[in-house]
Amino acid sequence: VTTSLTQLRIDRERLLSRLDALGEIGAIDGGGVCRLALTQIDGEGRDLVVSWMHDLGLRVEVDGVGNVVGTWPADRFDAPVMTGSHIDTVATGGRFDGNLGVLAGLEVLETVIRAGVETARPLAVAFFTNEEGARFAPDMLGSLVFAGGLPLEVALDTVAIDGAVLAEELDRVGYVGTLPCPARPPRAFVELHIEQGPILEAEGVTIGVVTGVQGISWHELVFSGQSNHAGTTPIDMRHDAALVAALTVVAVRRLTETTPGLVGTVGRIDLHPDLVNVVAARASITVDLRHADDDVLTEAERTILEQVGEMAAAEGVTFESSRLARFEPVTFDPAVVGLVEQVAVEHGHTARRLASGAGHDAQILARVCPAAMIFTPSVRGISHNPAEYTEPEDLEAGANVLLDVMLRLAGAGGDQSRGGDGS
Ligand code: HGY
Ligand code: MN
Ligand code: MN
Fold first, then answer.
1. CA-CA distances (angstroms) from residue 32 to 92, 328, 384?
2. Residue 414 confidence class, pLDDT cut points 50, 70, 90
3. Which atom of ligand 1 is nearest to the CA of 358?
4. Pair 227, 273: CB distance under 8 Å
5. Alpha-carbon distance 415 to 412, whole Å?
6. What's the whole-model pTM score?
7. Residue 332's CB: how many other CB atoms inside 10 A?
8. Which residues surround the ion ligand 2 when the cut-off is CB under 5 Å?
9. Mutate which of 86, 128, 132, 378 for ligand 1 pocket (most atoms within 8 A of beta carbon)
10. What is the DSSP letter of 306?
11. What is the DSSP code (8-state) at residue 45?
12. Cβ(325) to ligand 1 under 6 A?
């Protein structure tokens, strides 16, 4: 690789201005964004990023579930070195979760195109539909269809928490594409993402070399009791669905306290009829459990469901549980992980290996090609919160590591030796 290539760097101001422009779409108080998957506002975000892809002269393709891939050179159809992430957000999202990976990928391609760099393999940047899984479950739904882990028809029939059907929402925003699902696998996939946790900042490290992703388990539990009068109903006559839901929230926290490495979250609680003077007839909650070891995660699922059964029975409440998502822990490709680490060190950055606590599209792409991730620090470890923030110099550092890793994987400068498996 010629020296000029290793000196190639992204344009920080161009990246920051695109992050700001995209962050204006669906902007909420506190500097965050709300662009739930396939809402009108998500459609506007998609349209803006697609317009930037067209401006760069990329070949832009949309598949049957609305995943969008921009490829350079536009006339190359062999397997690309791909980067990307998501631009859908949670309702209290930050401007960087997912968006950084897509816009840094766009910035990498623009830098390569402007420099006239030739690569043995084409480069691509993608954004995947409904990575968050907040509106439609499971999360990583788009990349799962892209990688052949979920049939397109099943994905299209998915019903949102607000009752909308995915296929109809996809049509409404105009992203029903023709690129076949599953897609032909890329040559490799590297995703830049904010850490969303406290580790890099606490250790003063700039680049996270992500080794893999912990397992994820999402369930919905629906408790059925009996609505009754809050004033007249003796306690021992009650079948209070809200009580069992609340006991489950506590049981999840207690289990994390006795299971090292387990995290558990009840993020949603809905009561019916949800009125001050009525004992709740029905309660539905979600339980998110995660752990790096699949056996521990499976045992945690079993334990919670067993405890829920006992608590429901004691209150004369019945319950139904349904699985919303289940992903086993993933280990990224050692060669690509090693390349990320090598490049970070060559760029003079502090780097450390760590597993991801959050789910990402890269963990799904890892099923079909060598994949790895690059993390940048999150200020105060905050994410899924409008206050989510990463320093500009860290954004720039991450994007430059992504640039160099992709050039080496793609055999830049006609240097075929680099076009191997990232060695
Ligand atoms: O839930 C997650 O880990 C990701 O934000 N979809
Ligand atoms: Mn994300
Ligand atoms: Mn997220």
1. 7, 30, 9
2. low
3. 3
4. yes
5. 6
6. 0.96
7. 26
8. 97-98
9. 132
10. H
11. H
12. no
